[in-house]
């Protein structure tokens, strides 16, 4: 197993944000985490990537307790792309990607040509090579997001954890990016996704979070049902299953909310 | 792409240029003053003192150069380097372009700590002045951070907390000085508080140089860690940086450097703020080069500021803090407006 979570919980201010979640990530799989806003996806990700310690339960990374590993050991195996990560520093696109080499470089290790090659390759993967010398603050949201992915690839992780990686991206880049991480050889991907069609298209398994609990876990074709979508997201949907097993999800417009006329008794 | 060797030569070139600048600044610092002394006399004095070269020189000139001006210039350089480094560290760790030891109240806390030991005799002779200053600096930073956390998020919370902290500790210092010192002492202390290099001797070099050098080395050791803070603490943690340890070590080192310098020359504002920005313009944001560049720029700037403070009013010495503020305050305004334009 790559990452296994055993009954992990996290709470703050008396409120339980992640509640008794357990799962095992299979090597090489694309594992989706879906669920409405505030359901605890980002918090769950911070727990399984070792950024936060669970209040209860434990996380294992390749069979070893995450809590016993040094930050540096974790970062050599797990790369994380956060939902929001911004800077006002005048760094260039390339310098942002170069940060991905940090876990592999000691304080005295000089930057090498191999590092240069890895950074170049990562920039090429996300099609940002021509932007290498642009300053960060001049880049669009989508360009920044692709650079974050490139930074994570330059980290050469075994596990890539993405928190809503397709935010800010146009539809072409959304699909391109998910395909890109899917195609990486020997890479295990864990991604919080908002688009259920994307989850259906790219994930081997999806975990559905609702109110901090993991409510359903399984292959998308099995777990993405109209009932689950209604229960979890509160919208009604139609799902068509193509011959190739592809899911097509269509949502219905929510009924407009009509304020009920109330008769107030006048005196 | 620059290859590794090309960047190597470029780097050694830059280091060489920086050292030449520093030597020239020190040289000028020793030559310029109430009585100008020719540059070659300065060189001969140094040769006499360091290598017993035996040049026949006027003992008065030699004495002024060696005992007063050169020691003073070297302390100014150490102080500028230390403040520049502290500024870089605080700005990067707190991700705030306006952070520096003066604005965050660390200098004010160090002053209070120093006068508590020097005047009130806190510690009963066990504590030395730099230790008192260090304790004051840490206390001030702790208090300011606590206030900032309580005041809520936002990059300005820590700056506002720093303003409050500085006011509090400056008031405490004034209170202690007014209450416990005699008029003579009080005047001396007030002059020292504004930043003053007049009393500086070689013993002070023995204190400030090792601290500045050690500070530079510790910061350089953490250069990659500081780079990793570019996208925030969570991002740094995900890149394998032990965030809490780095905070403790680097903020501790900044506080120590600030405290030792405050103990010797008083609290000098704006150097820690402005120097890192100037250095970034020169060499970019990578800490591997930014840290030494800031130390060098700070050193040279401080020597020059000291020279200016000695000659701008004939027959009088202006506190060096006045000069740094005259340069620093407009630069502060520029950084503020630039930051707004980019946000
Ligand atoms: N440090 C914190 N303090 C207080 N509340 C928190 C904290 N972290 C998370 N929460 C709360 O926990 C809930 C889950 O947050 P989380 O960010 O994990 O949700 P999410 O599923 O990622 O949502 P989104 O889809 O909007 O990204 C939210 O209601 C959030 O307000
Ligand atoms: Mg989230």
Notes on the structure:
The complex is a heterodimer of chains A (267) and B (343). Chain A is 29% helix and 26% strand. Chain A is α/β, with parallel strands linked by helices and 267 residues long. In chain A, a hairpin with a 2-residue loop joins β1 (3-12) and β2. Chain A is globular and about 60 Å long. Chain B has one domain (25-342): Orthogonal Bundle (ABC transporter involved in vitamin B12 uptake, BtuC), CATH 1.10.3470.10. Chains A and B meet through α2, β6 and α4 of A and α9 and α10 of B. The complex binds adenosine-5'-triphosphate and magnesium ion. Magnesium ion binds next to α1 of chain A. Adenosine-5'-triphosphate binds next to α1 of chain A.
Fold topology:
The complex is a heterodimer of chains A (267) and B (343).
Chain A: E1 3-12, E2 15-24, E3 30-34, H1 41-48, E4 56-61, E5 64-65, H2 71-75, E6 78-81, H3 93-98, H4 113-125, H5 141-154, E7 159-163, H6 171-183, E8 188-192, H7 196-202, E9 205-210, E10 213-218, H8 220-223, H9 226-233, E11 237-241, E12 247-251
Parallel strand pairs in A: 3-8, 3-9, 6-7, 7-8
Antiparallel strand pairs in A: 1-2, 1-4, 4-5, 9-10, 11-12
Helix pairs in contact in A: 4-5
Chain B: H1 4-31, H2 39-51, H3 59-93, H4 106-120, H5 129-151, H6 156-180, H7 183-193, H8 202-221, H9 223-228, H10 233-238, H11 243-265, H12 271-283, H13 287-311, H14 320-342
Helix pairs in contact in B: 1-2, 1-3, 1-13, 2-3, 3-8, 3-11, 3-12, 3-13, 4-5, 4-6, 4-11, 5-6, 5-11, 8-11, 12-13, 12-14, 13-14
The complex binds adenosine-5'-triphosphate and magnesium ion (MG).
């Amino acid at each position: 197993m790559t990452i296994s979570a055993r009954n992990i919980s996290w709470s703050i201010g008396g409120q339980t944000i992640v509640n008794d979640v357990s799962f095992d990530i299979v090597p090489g799989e694309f594992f989706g985490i879906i669920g409405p806003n505030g359901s605890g996806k980002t918090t769950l990700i911070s727990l399984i990537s070792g950024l936060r310690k669970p209040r209860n339960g434990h996380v294992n990374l390749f069979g070893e307790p995450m809590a016993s590993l040094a930050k540096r050991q974790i970062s050599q195996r797990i790369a994380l792309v956060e939902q929001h990560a911004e800077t006002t520093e005048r760094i260039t696109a390339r310098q942002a990607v170069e940060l991905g080499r940090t876990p592999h470089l000691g304080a005295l290790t000089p930057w090498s040509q191999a590092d240069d090659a890895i950074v170049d390759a990562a920039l090429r993967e996300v099609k940002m090579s021509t932007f290498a010398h642009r300053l960060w603050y001049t880049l669009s949201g989508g360009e920044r997001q692709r650079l974050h992915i490139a930074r994570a690839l330059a980290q050469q992780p075994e596990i890539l954890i993405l928190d809503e990686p397709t935010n800010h991206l146009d539809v072409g880049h959304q699909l391109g990016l998910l395909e890109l991480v899917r195609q990486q050889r020997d890479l295990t991907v864990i991604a919080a996704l908002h688009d259920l069609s994307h989850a259906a298209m790219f994930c081997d398994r999806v975990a559905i979070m609702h109110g901090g609990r993991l409510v359903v876990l399984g292959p998308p074709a099995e777990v993405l049902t109209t009932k689950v979508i209604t229960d979890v997201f509160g919208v009604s949907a139609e799902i068509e299953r193509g011959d190739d097993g592809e899911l097509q999800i269509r949502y219905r417009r929510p009924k407009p909310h009509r304020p009920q006329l109330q008769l107030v008794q006048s005196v | 792409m620059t290859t590794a060797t090309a960047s190597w030569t470029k780097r050694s070139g830059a280091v060489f240029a920086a050292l030449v600048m520093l030597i020239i600044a020190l040289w000028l610092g020793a030559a310029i003053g109430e009585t100008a002394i020719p540059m070659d006399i300065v060189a001969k004095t140094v040769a006499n003192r360091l290598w017993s070269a035996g040049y026949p020189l006027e003992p008065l000139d030699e004495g002024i150069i060696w005992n007063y001006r050169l020691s003073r210039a070297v302390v100014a350089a150490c102080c500028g380097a230390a403040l520049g480094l502290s500024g870089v560290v605080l700005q990067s760790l707190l991700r705030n372009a306006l952070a520096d030891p003066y604005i965050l109240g660390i200098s004010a806390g160090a002053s209070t700590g120093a006068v508590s030991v020097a005047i009130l005799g806190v510690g009963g002779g066990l504590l030395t002045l730099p230790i008192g200053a260090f304790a004051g600096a840490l206390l001030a930073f702790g208090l300011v951070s606590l206030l900032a956390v309580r005041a809520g998020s936002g990059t300005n919370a820590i700056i506002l907390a720093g303003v409050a902290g500085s006011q509090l500790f400056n008031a405490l210092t004034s209170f202690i000085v007014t209450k416990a010192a005699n008029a003579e002492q009080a005047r001396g202390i007030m002059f020292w508080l504004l930043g003053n290099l007049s009393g500086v001797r070689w013993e002070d070099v023995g204190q400030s140089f090792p601290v500045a050098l050690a500070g530079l080395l510790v910061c350089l050791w953490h250069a990659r860690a500081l780079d990793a803070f570019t996208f925030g603490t969570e991002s740094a943690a995900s890149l394998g940086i032990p965030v809490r340890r780095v905070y403790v070590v680097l903020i501790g080192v900044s506080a120590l450097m600030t405290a030792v310098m405050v103990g010797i020359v008083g609290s000098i504002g704006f150097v820690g703020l402005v120097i890192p920005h100037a250095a970034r313009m020169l060499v970019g944001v990578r800490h591997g080069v930014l840290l030494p560049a800031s130390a060098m720029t700070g050193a040279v700037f401080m020597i020059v500021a000291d020279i200016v403070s000695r000659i701008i009013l004939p027959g009088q010495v202006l506190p060096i803090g006045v000069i740094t503020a005259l340069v620093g305050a407009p630069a502060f305004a520029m950084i503020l407006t630039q930051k707004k334009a980019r946000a």
